[in-house]
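Question (not urgent): is this output format expected?
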Amino acid sequence: MAQIVAGDERVNEMKAMDANRYATKKTIAQGMLDIALLTANASQLKYILQVGEQHQFYKLMLILISLSIVMQVAAGVLLIIQSLISIHNPKDRSIGFTINYFVDAFIFLSVFCDVMKMNFGLDPAIPLLQNVEMLKP
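Got this back:
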């Protein structure tokens, strides 16, 4: 009988979930993922700048990484603004939805840039064309 009561309390607790709190947690989670992606891009930018013009796709990689970082920062700023908006006010809710659409677009484009740049290779384990000659027997 005690288990049923505990289960009922859990159901009532889930029904009373605050939508604003959920949206805030979701925004924070998106922000944390954005920070992780930004850190990875900063590391890749450091690598591509160290390799320099020797990399076959140096300019393309530099553009894609920079574009991705700019979009991630813009999305992060919008997420901070969005977290300050209360969804209980109808006027603020429509602004929040609009900001959310822009955040989604920036994150989508950022991930698209990341997918494109990974297809052109940033793996430090892959030798540069100059070093391939030294590896041959």
